[in-house]
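Input chain follows. Return structure tokens only.
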Amino acid sequence: MHGADAAPPQLDWQRLERIRDSVPDMPLSLHGASGLSVEDLRQAVRLGICKVNVNTELRQRYLDEVTARLPDVLPGLRLLDLQNALVAVVAEAAGEILDLLEPARRR
């Protein structure tokens, strides 16, 4: 799934198990994990997903930060302040996603 959607995506767990079983030594990627619940993400990792794409979540945090900081940086055109804040907030969001996947990865 790309982008935000009104309804969360529904994964076909049986299909994922069949794919994993047919290529047991191949790392699997979930292209488009946006909108999935934490439990669905963890279940996907337990079933063999090694890589998840979460670009929408990172873009949302980035744009939220731009919106919040723009009024403060515009008067002095303090782009470096904005850029540093954006790097930090995206890194924080990525770290949060990795942290929530960690319990599934250890199983």
